[in-house]
Design brief:
By secondary structure, the chain is an alpha+beta fold. The chain folds into four domains: 1-124, Phosphorylase Kinase, domain 1 (2-Layer Sandwich); 127-330, Transferase(Phosphotransferase) domain 1 (Transferase(Phosphotransferase), domain 1, Orthogonal Bundle); 333-407; 420-710, no CATH class. Helices cover 47% and strands 11% of the residues. A five-stranded antiparallel sheet has the order 1-2-3-5-4, covered by helices on one side. Strands 10-11-12 form a three-stranded antiparallel sheet. A two-stranded antiparallel sheet has the order 6-9. It is globular, with a radius of gyration of 28 Å. The two termini are 51 Å apart.
Length: 711
């Protein structure tokens, strides 16, 4: 199913234009329903369904209420105004929790719509839930190291939730998603509550949750509602993971007898009465589970690193100690890679929070910010500072577990890599600011005209592409910490002209491996620059293009976006050297157009630090060499000779003609939109995206400068 939503575009744009800086920050998660595509259903709960969707160039999971014909006789958010309001209240509760709990082990909140249909956009997990994974006969969490690593991730996510004084109250395998690289994400905060409650609300909250996972104190009158209930639920979840069974399967009439049995100390046992569950796992894990489901809630450990029970006694600390011990006897590179990926994800989240805190500080100092907004901003700031502090603590813990500790070779190499990526992003943002200033917007029409000519019978190949230098090492860990590239060898990736996203191409769907002559790079540097611009513009608005970068595979989208910027900036460096060498070898004629000065042929995205590269604005202003079909025919010949794919059989794009006569190679996801709208929907005609990119790049630059000034 595919659906769209219609709102008053003029009213929406007008309202947005009137918002102050504080209002924009406080409403940053509110999305325009027109930008969301709703696709097929993924799953369902009591009052809601979860569907796959598409928003801002990425796949998302969309949680929305059941429609009347899907309600199975139950009241739902569409059946009455009161039900609609109740669902929106639960939605706001979930948004409030997720907007502050920013952590690699908590599902990412992309945004929310309240009208015309209430829905929340979350990170998409292709592998589904932990419950889905455990149903498989030979699932991936059966070895001690695998399930300890999984449970440690869940515990870290819950530590972050509790740091914000939020109680989940429905932790179970169905509410843990399995993200890329098997990283667990805590999800479904619809039943969550805050520590700041009255006794009356405690009474109603005590009834929430799923029966087998409810702690004994929740069955008391009045119930005790606290973080200990989540620790108990974690114990039941851990038991299910290590034993591979569901709890209480042999208990008759469990729905009525379980509350009393749990209060008397009954805990899960295996279906086979002759087996003991303790024999299914290690001694430390047995002690942890038994401690977490202790009958006295005050005796259960915290998720965090100690608290009142002493340093190292928390669930996270104990699991990480188990993980470290088990890793010593396993594949060392795999263990180090897992630590490296954790560190990169954690540092990325922390850096994102740093930028957000600078923006909040600027809004707090704005004269237009009202007293009520100041209060809300202060609450947001406190929440983000809590998340950032926990992330820094987690990052230090990861570094401490690496060989040699925080000063070891791996930790030092990762630190250098992260700093290098930040520098590359800063340079790319400066490029975007230069390229998309208002005074040069009109000059970009030359690029559009140049591209448009290819549709007039010359388009035998997708026009937007990126060339990525091929890395020497096949080891993912080495690709992260030691960047080395093969000479003159590239990975060619085509971009969809509608979304700007990379498409699957090449025999292995990770790009065409080509040896590209320097002469071709020199002569066609202008058309090469178009794809690089798209990647940087996408990065400026926080959108990953999806380039096949093995070292970034499975990392959060912000990290992937940084890696993509680093990749294109690396190519620009190689590209610049190739042009200089090529011009020297090929002579002046190879580097200039007969009717234009030498400087006009430099691509506008080459680093301005290059001694021969003119400024971006000047390059755009004087670029007169029109792209022709010759370059693309040569590219097709390279694909034929080197990849045996002259007819692009291994490229998931097809040549289509739109209603307005435009001809493009487009992906399957963009085909319908292109056929209907033609040139209007091409990404280089999207002035809104360009201005958004310029605005966000300027905002990021301001944030970075503020952070440097504060230091």
């Amino acid at each position: 199913m595919v659906s769209s939503f219609t709102l008053s575009e003029g009213a929406s744009a007008s309202a947005k234009a009137r918002m102050t800086r504080a209002q924009e920050l406080l409403r940053k998660f509110e999305l325009d329903a027109r930008e969301i595509r709703v696709l097929e259903k993924l799953g369902e709960g009591g009052q809601f369904v979860v569907v796959r969707g598409w928003w801002d160039g990425i796949e998302v999971a969309i949680k929305q209420p059941r429609r009347p014909n899907e309600s199975r006789g139950e009241e739902n958010a569409f059946s009455s105004p009161s039900a609609h309001d109740s669902y929106k209240q639960a939605l706001r509760r979930e948004v409030r929790a997720l907007s502050r709990v920013l952590h690699p082990n908590v599902v990412k909140l992309h945004g929310v719509c309240f009208e015309p249909v209430p829905m929340i956009l979350l990170g998409y997990a292709p592998s589904g839930t932990l419950q889905d994974a455990l149903k498989k006969k030979n699932h991936k969490f059966q070895t001690p190291l695998a399930y300890v690593r999984l449970l440690a991730g869940i515990a870290r996510g819950m530590e972050a939730v509790h740091a914000h004084k939020i109680f989940h109250l429905d932790l179970k395998p169905e509410n843990v998603l399995i993200g890329p690289l098997d990283v667990p994400w805590i999800t479904d905060f619809g039943l969550s509550t805050s520590a700041n409650m009255t006794s009356m609300s405690h009474s109603s909250v005590g009834g929430r949750g799923t029966l087998p996972f409810k702690a004994p104190e929740l069955f008391a009158h009045p119930p005790h509602v606290g973080p200990e209930a989540d620790v108990y639920a974690f114990a039941i979840l851990a038991w299910i993971v290590v034993c591979g069974e569901q709890p209480y399967v042999n208990m008759p009439a469990a729905a009525t007898s379980l509350p009393q049995a749990v209060a008397k100390g009954v805990r899960p046992t295996l279906a086979d009465p002759d087996e003991e569950w303790q024999d299914k796992t290690t001694g430390p894990m047995v002690k942890l589970i038994e401690g977490c489901w202790h009958a006295e809630y005050a005796q259960r450990p915290n998720f965090g690193w100690g608290g009142s029970k002493g340093a190292g006694s928390g669930v996270v600390a104990r699991l990480e100690k188990m993980e470290h011990s088990l890793s010593n006897g396993s594949d060392q590179e795999a263990s180090q890679l897992a630590l490296a990926m954790r560190l990169i994800s954690t540092e990325s989240e922390a850096e994102t929070l740093s930028v957000a805190l600078v923006q909040i500080g600027a809004a707090q100092g704005d004269a237009t910010t009202t007293a009520a907004e100041q209060t809300q901003l202060a609450e947001e700031k406190a929440g983000l500072e809590t998340s950032q502090g926990l992330l820094r603590q987690n990052a230090f813990a990861v570094l401490s577990q690496m060989p040699g500790g925080t000063s070891g070779e791996l930790a030092s190499a990762l630190s250098v890599m992260l700093q290098h990526q930040s520098d590359m992003v800063r340079q790319a943002m400066q490029d975007v600011i230069s390229e998309f200033k208002d005074e040069v917007f009109s000059e970009l029409k030359g690029v559009k005209r140049s591209l448009s000519r290819l549709a007039e019978g010359e388009l035998d190949c997708p026009r937007l592409f990126v060339l990525l230098p091929m890395e020497k090492s096949s080891s993912k860990l080495m690709q992260l910490v030691k960047r080395e590239f093969l000479k003159d060898k590239y990975r060619l990736v085509f971009l969809d002209p509608i979304s700007g996203r990379a498409v699957r191409c090449g025999p292995d769907s990770d790009g065409y491996k080509l040896e590209v002559p320097k002469k071709w790079l020199v002569e066609n540097r202008e058309i090469i620059s178009y794809g690089l611009q798209i990647v940087k513009m996408s990065a400026a608005v926080g959108r990953a293009v999806g380039l096949p970068l093995p070292s970034a595979s499975g990392l959060p989208s912000e990290v992937v976006s940084k890696a993509e910027v680093e990749a294109v900036k690396t190519f620009e460096g190689v590209f610049s050297d190739s042009v200089l060498i090529g011009e020297s070898a090929l002579g002046e004629d190879a580097s200039r157009d007969d009717a234009s000065p030498r400087s006009s042929t430099w691509p506008c995205c080459l680093p301005s630090a290059s001694p021969k590269a003119p400024s971006t604005a000047k390059a755009v202003k004087h670029a007169v060499k029109a792209a022709t079909g010759r370059a693309y025919k040569q590219l097709r010949k390279m694909l034929k000779d080197q990849c045996k794919d002259e007819y692009l059989v291994h490229c998931e794009m097809t040549k289509e003609k739109a209603r307005d006569g435009s001809i493009e190679f487009v992906s399957a996801d963009s085909k319908e939109r292109f056929l209907q709208n033609g040139q209007q929907c091409l990404i280089w005609n999207d002035e809104t995206l360009k201005r958004k990119a310029a605005a966000k790049a300027a905002m990021l630059k301001e944030s970075l400068e503020s952070r440097v000034h504060d230091c």
